[in-house]
């Protein structure tokens, strides 16, 4: 059995202009990985899927409040 490899992606709002972006791999069981798109060979952060969802929910909430 071969372990699955992370499938990295960036936000659909990211551009190819080399901005400040992160890449996320959420295809692995039990973990979400996050890394700097400008340092792909560097370290990545690992989050439990529930913690990652909580972070995204909080970021969306903060973003919606900042827009008002």
UniProtKB/TrEMBL annotation:
Region (Disordered): 1-21
Record's compositionally biased regions (Polar residues): 9-18
A Pfam family reported for this protein in Swiss-Prot or TrEMBL: DUF397
InterPro entries assigned: DUF397 (IPR007278)
Domain DUF397: residue ranges: 7-60
Protein name: DUF397 domain-containing protein
Species name: Micromonospora zingiberis
